[in-house]
Design brief:
By secondary structure, this protein is of the alpha/beta class. The protein has twelve helices and ten strands. The protein is globular and about 60 Å long. The chain binds pyridoxal-5'-phosphate.
């Protein structure tokens, strides 16, 4: 097995905290792993993947990172912050950035000095072409670009969450009961792919569940399978994962990516007031809504001890003030 190099950037291990009021309501022991505490301006899950991706960029002596996302992309903001920290340039291909207000993540991208190239939804669907054009243009200007795929979700990014499985196991008190389930949002699949690989490699006692925040579970199973196969081949991982082992719960996408339902917006206010934790409207509110809904319908599905990954996203909240006002 080959382990790729990593630049330590995230504030880890992140704490695991019980959600006492919600646990009592649902008759389970629900805890949250505070992946929103991996850093202030680098909050969220993307920094874990970027530790490996940026190590690769550095090894290849690249001086510019290029990545993509929505106008309120957490991944783009984390990349911009870390590029500034490491003294390299950052170019962001952001869907809808031309029309978007300068707030939340987009405001931070600009503060970090990232070059923003707005792309239309149509161009975004063929993002590889836009990446190739941008990389060629940068090379023409004498720069050495490193392209990071959407969400940092590829074989390298997955290592961030392979590692988290070990971290969770180390945080379980010796001899104490382990978690039965670990649950996360699925937006580009890298987090789920990493957790699945990590759980296999470490023979973890818990099952991994994803909840998709856009598209369909079938679509993400294929995407996750692609990342798994790539990682297993490249790093000689001594594991085998079948498609049927990828568990993604569908039905919580609402109107689409970045469009939470009124129920999901209300859940943000409820969790904030009950537990002092703020979920984000794009990922964690949908995933948490899915977890609670399934708990209501199938109380035994996840076992008794459940760990929800709070994967960050707080800055996008500030682009949803109007929507949230309606449910406050
Ligand atoms: C990107 C993101 C996710 C989804 O993780 P993927 O690895 O892209 O599936 C979940 N939560 C937040 C806050 C994110 O920014």
């Amino acid at each position: 097995m080959k382990v790729p190099p990593r630049i330590p950037l995230a504030m880890v291990p992140t704490p695991i905290e019980p959600l006492r009021r919600i646990s009592a309501q649902y008759g389970v022991e629900l805890s949250v792993k505070r992946e929103d505490l991996t850093g202030l301006l680098t909050t969220g899950n993307k920094i874990r993947k970027l530790e490996y991706l940026l190590a690769d960029a550095r090894e290849r002596a690249c001086d510019t990172v290029v990545t993509c996302g929505g106008a309120q992309s957490n991944h783009a903001r984390a990349t911009a912050a870390l590029a500034a920290q490491l003294g390299i340039q950052c170019v962001l291909l952001l869907r809808g950035a031309r029309e978007a207000a300068l707030e939340g993540n987009l405001l931070l991208d600009r503060l970090f000095g990232a070059e923003i190239l707005p792309v239309t939804p149509d161009e975004y669907r063929r993002i590889d072409e836009a990446f190739a054009r941008t990389a060629n243009e940068l090379m023409r200007r004498g720069r050495k670009p490193y392209v990071i795929p959407e969400g940092g979700s590829n074989h390298l990014g997955a290592w961030g969450y392979i590692q988290v499985v070990e971290e969770i196991m180390a945080q379980t008190p010796a001899g104490g009961p382990s978690f039965d389930s670990v649950v996360c949002a699925v937006g580009s699949g890298g987090t789920l792919a990493g957790l699945l690989l990590g759980a296999k490699l470490s023979q973890a006692p818990f099952r991994i569940w994803g909840i998709n925040v856009s598209d369909t579970a079938a679509y993400f199973k294929q995407r996750v399978l692609g990342i798994l196969r790539e990682a297993i081949a490249i790093y000689d991982l001594p594991v085998e994962i079948r498609e049927s082992e990828i568990e993604i719960l569908d039905g919580y996408v609402g109107e689409g990516y970045g469009r939470p339902t009124p129920e999901q917006l209300r859940l943000i206010t409820q969790v904030a007031q009950q537990e002092g934790i703020v979920l984000d409207p794009v990922y964690t509110a949908k995933a948490f809504c899915g977890l609670l809904d399934r708990l209501k319908k199938e109380p035994d599905r996840f076992g008794k001890r459940i760990l929800f990954l709070h994967t960050g996203g707080v800055f996008s909240l500030f682009a949803y003030g109007g929507a949230l006002e309606a449910v406050l």
